[in-house]
Amino acid sequence: MPATPRLRTHRPASPDLLRSVFRQHAAGVAVITARGERGPVGFTATSLASVSVDPPMLSFGVGTGASSWPAIAGTDHVGVHVLGEHQQDLAATFARSGADRFGGATAWREGPEGIPVLDDVLAWLVCRIVTRVPAGDHRVVLAEVLAGDPAGVGRPLLYHQGRFGGLRD
């Protein structure tokens, strides 16, 4: 049996500790979209998780200070897009504050429930929001899947150590 590594001195809980630990955690990259009062909105999320298969449900987190939060807070439906490793620029655009997320460089169309659906993603879903759970400076959104398409081609985009990247063989 391998020896257990020695524990280093621990640090007290803080936002920096949480950020530092999660930089070690590789996560898939998604873009969440919705219809806002002034047009489509969206943001990059690495907190996407499957919650239930029957009924099909997922969750994601969104900061209450994010520019997309008012639209997410006021809508009944969202789009969830799993990005491919060829979409690092798209992920960065939707992660950047003040960016023109649905400008000329972003290919999209109106999907079910009027939700903005991004082109050329690995997979997308349109979901009905079931609830928004307060969680510190965020809300955890639980949503039921209504429709989607898993047929995109490519490998998933990952986020690790503060950078976007792909899988290595």
TrEMBL record:
InterPro entries: Flavin_Rdtase-like_dom, NADH-dep_flavin_reductase, Split_barrel_FMN-bd. Pfam families: Flavin_Reduct. The keyword DNA-binding does not apply. GO terms for biological process: pyrimidine nucleobase catabolic process. One of its GO terms (molecular function) is FMN binding. Gene3D superfamilies: Electron Transport, Fmn-binding Protein, Chain A (2.30.110.10). Coiled coil: none annotated. It comes from Streptomyces fructofermentans. This is Flavin-dependent reductase. Residues 22-166 form the Flavin reductase like domain. The keyword Oxidoreductase applies. Keywords: Oxidoreductase. It comes from the Bacteria.
